[in-house]
Amino acid sequence: MNSDLIAGMAALVAADASPEVLAVRGDVVVVRVADVVLKAHEAGTDLAVLAQRLRLAADPRLGELLLTPRSAPAIVLGRVVTAWPMGTPVPQSEPEDLPMEAAGRMLAALHRFTAEDFAPPVPLAGAHPRMERAVRDLTLDTPAAQLVRRAFTTLPAFDNSGTTLIHGDWHLGQLVWRDGYRLIDVDDLGVGDPAWDVARPAALHAAGVLDAEAWGRLLGSYLDAGGAGVPRDDPWSVLEAPARALVVQMAARALSAAQRDEKELTEAQEALIDACARIVSTHEPKPRG
């Protein structure tokens, strides 16, 4: 852990601050100082693009959906650091206790905005690059890793023609409570295909990780609130391909994290590897340029 980076992050709040480390995921570091959360983003983060995403997050029209950044991003020891008000994470409890209805309504509200609602430049959502980066960063050469790569070859070429505002990396871990539920981690916020925001829980459902009742609550509340990302009569007509891509992404991330942390896969992560096996058995590889 980079103690100099952590100290430099804390100094953005107060010179004598005593930071609490909340999370370390690869080279991403999250610390808390009093009521402020500071995040050192991945090495190589594009400062200009992230600043565009933060500008969207600070738009007052999104104030009841996204947590508002406290300030412009800073640079600490060469790393991009952002500051946020503290929120209470959603407990990862039993499925029946998860705020699926609130989450569905929030996604539907977010998806009402388009690129035309904001002054340019409006960044492209980072969903596709995040998925591809997860596979590219997978350095293992095990049967499970090879399976993930084979599943990746079945994916179609995704375009970037969508104009709907999407989170780009949505899951329940991106919800916190601060005067109501708010979305956090806007690293991939931008315009794109709204089906990608719904596709991650769809992927978890398809992999057997998220039960049918919880998935139905989320999808139903999204559709009832006017969510435009998926058709009510056939949601899987638009969810299948991005859900398959996100199974691949989550499986690749799980293998990389297990290697980094020297841990065994969890039961849920094993289910994602099994889902990759089903993908390979039912889909042919696609030619990729």
Automatic annotation (TrEMBL):
Q: What is the top-level taxon of the source organism?
A: Bacteria
Keyword Kinase assigned to the entry: answer is yes
Concerning InterPro entries, the annotation shows: Aminoglycoside_PTrfase, Kinase-like_dom_sf
Arranged from A to Z, the UniProt key words for this protein are:
Kinase, Transferase
Keyword Transferase listed: yes
- Show where the Aminoglycoside phosphotransferase domain sits: 87-235
| An annotated Gene Ontology molecular function | kinase activity
- Name this protein carries in UniProt: Aminoglycoside phosphotransferase (APT) family kinase protein
Question: Per the UniProt entry, what species is this protein from, by scientific name?
Answer: Saccharothrix ecbatanensis
From which lineage does this chain's organism come?
Answer: Bacteria, Bacillati, Actinomycetota, Actinomycetes, Pseudonocardiales
